[in-house]
From TrEMBL, chain A:
<keyword id="KW-0472">Membrane</keyword>
<feature type="transmembrane region" description="Helical">
    <location>
        <begin position="284"/>
        <end position="306"/>
    </location>
</feature>
<feature type="transmembrane region" description="Helical">
    <location>
        <begin position="78"/>
        <end position="99"/>
    </location>
</feature>
<keyword id="KW-0812">Transmembrane</keyword>
<feature type="transmembrane region" description="Helical">
    <location>
        <begin position="137"/>
        <end position="156"/>
    </location>
</feature>
<feature type="transmembrane region" description="Helical">
    <location>
        <begin position="260"/>
        <end position="278"/>
    </location>
</feature>
<feature type="transmembrane region" description="Helical">
    <location>
        <begin position="163"/>
        <end position="182"/>
    </location>
</feature>
<keyword id="KW-1133">Transmembrane helix</keyword>
<dbReference type="InterPro" id="IPR018677">
    <property type="entry name" value="DUF2157"/>
</dbReference>
Automatic annotation (TrEMBL), chain B:
<feature type="transmembrane region" description="Helical">
    <location>
        <begin position="9"/>
        <end position="28"/>
    </location>
</feature>
<keyword id="KW-0812">Transmembrane</keyword>
<protein>
    <submittedName>
        <fullName>Uncharacterized protein</fullName>
    </submittedName>
</protein>
<keyword id="KW-1133">Transmembrane helix</keyword>
<keyword id="KW-0472">Membrane</keyword>
Length: 313, 194
């Protein structure tokens, strides 16, 4: 009953619009242009208010930091912990509270960001004031581990992408240090952490939190490719294996529909071609020819990358 | 449970992979430590910036198996920072700072044996009698991922006693400007002093 009324009133409105358009000789384009103009104005107003909002937030944040730094030497240990950890905890609680009200829903992400900065600061201050020893690495591992549990613990009931992002960031911070302390060498650490991040990024990509997946693909693939290159650089003939690896990752990127991975693997391939020609063909007579060959290869690779890019929807 | 594992196999593998590697490396390191002999001799080192045994106003010189502290006022007016001297005992895994003589402004030349080492025999050879070498272990393989999540610069620069695959980290040694002075190879008349 209600629906039929809506349709009826809509039909009436359209009939009136058509009648008015014919009466005043208003074209369809002119109506469309007026709508576009109105939309742009609305967007512009929103953009300005958002910018001023962010600017205001930055001033509040900057003012708080400045006040803390001015008072720092006069503060007791307890006060130092409260003044750094306190605002972090307050912003975290506030960001959960605003999630309950749809009007302030969007404020949760900047508030989570602020708490992600202030909470570790407060925890480091706590350790600095009360913990014995000067093992900053161990302190960082503990702080990031606790924060990973904190943010991921909040993510499971609240299902917010920003919580997942920060939780996973702290998780990697903690696990990276743990690996380093267990004696894992830099290259192996980079390879395993890179693969791990890419696998988790793929899993995130399958969920509604996919907005953060490209960032993790970017970080994981750079870490993986960089570490493998460090491992095999200058070792002939093993270093040529880098070529099929980058091509494989380009193909994987089409399979998992990630332009980020395609971009990084293409860059790695181009970089490797530069390294390889420079390393093995850079004698005085062969160098110009090597440059020409490399030029053709770059063109081929870029054309291939564009083709692959089109496959990614 | 089975369904959950099947549906999230990539996620689970991604999360457990670094943990698994950590456990493997931890076990391997412990096994390596257990199978290697720990260094027997304490090492003497200093942390003076720009320490140069030939140019610095402050020098540590071994004469007749004894460690001497030598100060010569600078001709060029260069103000050298007074060094600090440490002894690292690998058995106890601790470093001890050794007190150095006070230098007055009127002093132009000091050359005195350090009392702490009076009953000890010092060797200035780079390698200790049990085969360990004092090294600065700089790991240059740094990329965006290891920089972000690899534990910072402390993990890449450290001072170690090295023998084959066995690396003993000197925990409190400054990462830069740490210089080898010698090994305590024995007490006077007693071998293998620490």
């Amino acid at each position: 009953m209600e629906n039929s009324n809506i349709i009826e009133s809509k039909e009436t409105a359209l009939a009136q619009i058509t009648q008015l358009a014919q009466e005043f000789d208003v074209s369809l384009d002119e109506i469309g242009a007026r709508f576009t103009q109105k939309n742009n104005q609305d967007k512009s107003d929103k953009w300005l208010s958002r910018l001023l909002g962010y600017l205001g937030g930055a001033f509040v944040f900057g003012g708080l930091a400045l006040l803390i730094s001015m008072l720092w030497d006069d503060l007791s240990s307890v006060a130092r912990v409260i003044i750094t950890y306190g605002p972090g905890l307050v912003t975290f609680i506030l960001s959960i509270i605003v999630l309950k009200d749809p009007r302030y829903d969007k404020a949760s992400t900047p508030l989570f960001l602020m708490s992600a900065i202030l909470l570790p600061t407060g925890m480091f201050v706590f350790l600095h004031e009360y913990a014995k020893g000067d093992d900053g690495q161990l302190a960082a591992m503990i702080v990031f581990g606790i924060l990973a549990c904190h943010f991921l613990g909040a993510f499971f009931p609240l299902k917010r992408t920003s919580l997942l992002f920060f939780g996973y960031l702290f998780w990697n911070g903690s696990i990276g240090i743990l690996m380093e302390r267990a004696g894992v060498s830099g290259e192996i650490l980079g390879i395993i952490l890179g693969v791990s991040i890419m696998m988790v990024a793929w899993s995130i990509d399958q969920t509604k939190h996919r907005a953060i997946a490209p960032f993790w693909y970017f970080l994981g693939s750079i870490g993986l490719l960089w570490s493998i290159f460090d491992l095999i650089e200058g070792i002939s003939p093993i270093d040529i294996l880098y070529l099929p690896l980058t091509i494989f990752l380009m193909l994987v990127s089409t399979r998992i529909h990630s332009r980020t991975l395609l971009f990084i693997s293409t860059l790695a391939l181009l970089g490797f071609l530069g390294y390889y020609t420079g390393e093995y063909f850079a004698d005085t007579t062969g160098w110009p020819i090597a440059l020409i060959i490399m030029g053709f290869m770059l063109i081929s690779v870029s054309a291939y990358a564009v083709q692959l890019g089109k496959k990614i929807k | 449970m089975k369904k959950f594992l099947r549906e999230n196999i990539v996620l689970i593998a991604g999360v457990t992979l670094p943990l698994l590697l950590t456990v493997i490396f931890f076990i391997a390191t412990q096994f390596d430590k257990a199978s290697n002999e720990y260094p027997l001799h304490s090492v003497i080192y200093t942390d003076q910036p720009n320490y140069n045994a030939n140019r610095s106003s402050y020098q540590f010189v071994v004469k007749k198996d004894q460690l001497h502290f030598v100060y010569t006022a600078s001709d060029t007016g260069q103000n050298w920072k007074k060094p600090r001297l440490y002894v690292f005992n690998p058995q106890a895994n601790t470093s001890q700072e050794i007190e150095l003589p006070i230098i007055n402004e009127s002093d132009t030349k000091i050359d005195i044996p350090l009392p702490y080492f009076a009953s000890k025999t010092i060797s200035t050879l780079l390698t200790s009698p049990d085969g360990y070498t004092f090294k600065s272990n700089y790991r240059h393989n740094v990329n965006i991922l290891t920089s972000l999540f690899g534990g910072g610069s402390k993990s890449r620069n450290r001072v170690i006693l090295s023998k084959g695959s066995s690396n003993i980290i000197i925990p409190d040694a400054a990462r830069y400007n740490t210089h080898f002075i010698g090994w305590i190879v024995g007490e006077q008349g007693v071998a293998n002093g620490k």
